[in-house]
Design a protein that fits this description.
Layout lengths: L9 H4 L1 H4 L3 H6 L18 H6 L2 H33 L8 H27 L15 H11 L6 H25 L5 H29 L4 H8 L2 H9 L3 H10 L4 H13 L3 H8 L1 H10 L2 H6 L3
Helix pairs in contact: 5-6, 5-8, 6-9, 7-11, 8-9, 8-11, 9-15, 11-14, 12-13
The structure holds fe (ii) ion (2 copies).
């Protein structure tokens, strides 16, 4: 299968080459919501509305989202690209794939930076410096899955995680952008990110099947059973984080438990995974049809 580049216009269209965000973050929130309520299920709960803390919670979740992006790009996606470009493997791939991977590496570094600067630009009482922030639970879940594997398999597993994440990420970014109640500054930062991610998705959709066909059978078997775990770790809301946010908003323990259990009762993990992963499942189908059966095991 011939590879055709999704990043051929990168030098003129990528965010790192043409998106300036300094003035945008100065605009702040300006009477709009800091984040889309559709992305924060606890924000619509009647007790949250009654107490008048919806905006505070959305603000906290927006900053957590920006921080999550920073961690994701620096700790997971860029290391996966480093493995693809210079890692210990014998993939036979077009040279153009490696230069495209380097373009994505630059994109992700820029996404990490502008997400972090959005986060640190505003005065946040709990922010004590980059190295003091707790790693988001979903990121830790991915590390746990990868570190459970034999050391020699972790590079390919990381790359497989990147495929899953990069084929899912555009959906969530796009839905966040459509909500016009959200501040234009936040939406334009998310939008600049989403435009790059559309190209990254095309890259992984084209490249991952080429890699898959070069993997040994035992490695394919092992990976087949963890693609879905990767997707679930990103789709499942971080209930511990939500509990902490509610406590910060002065809800007592009983109220926190009530809100979390109400929201949990409306959440369906299988449905959420399915709606977030049409492109991911297409990649798996292009690798081999049997992979979808493993994916749908639940
Ligand atoms: Fe990104
Ligand atoms: Fe990306």
């Amino acid at each position: 299968m011939q590879y055709s580049s999704a990043l051929s216009r990168w030098h003129t269209t990528s965010a790192i080459r043409q998106f300036r965000y300094e003035d945008i973050i100065n605009d702040g929130i300006q009477g709009h919501l800091p984040f889309s309520p559709s992305l924060v299920p606890i924000s619509g709960h009647p007790l949250v509305k009654e107490k008048g803390v919806q905006e505070k919670i959305l603000y906290r979740c927006m900053t957590e989202y920006m921080l999550f992006t920073t961690y994701l790009e620096i700790l997971l996606i860029n290391p996966s690209l480093t493995f693809l470009i210079f890692g210990d493997h014998n993939f036979n791939l077009d040279d153009c794939i490696y230069t495209d991977a380097m373009k994505i590496y630059c994109d992700e570094g820029y996404h990490a930076l502008f997400s972090l600067e959005t986060f640190t630009h505003v005065d946040i009482p709990y922010y004590k410096g980059i190295r003091e922030i707790k790693k988001p639970n979903s990121i830790q879940r991915v590390f746990n899955i990868i570190n459970n594997l034999d050391k020699t398999r972790r590079g390919v597993a990381l790359l497989s995680f990147a495929m899953v994440s990069e084929t899912m990420v555009t959906n969530s970014l796009l839905s966040a952008m459509k909500d016009e109640t959200v501040a234009a500054s936040v939406r334009s930062i998310i939008s600049a990110h989403a435009e790059d991610e559309g190209k990254h998705q095309a890259f992984f959709m084209r490249v991952y099947p080429l890699i898959w066909h070069q993997l040994p059978e035992n490695e394919k078997n092992e990976l087949g059973s963890i693609f879905r775990n990767f997707a679930e770790s990103f789709v499942e809301p971080d209930w511990d984080f939500y509990s902490a946010v509610l406590q910060e908003s002065s809800f007592d323990k009983a109220e926190v438990n009530l809100i979390i259990s109400d929201v949990k009762s409306t959440f369906n993990l299988d449905l959420a995974v399915n709606s977030a992963t049409p492109a991911t499942r297409k990649v798996l189908k292009n690798c081999e049809h049997e992979l979808l059966k493993k994916w749908e095991r639940l």
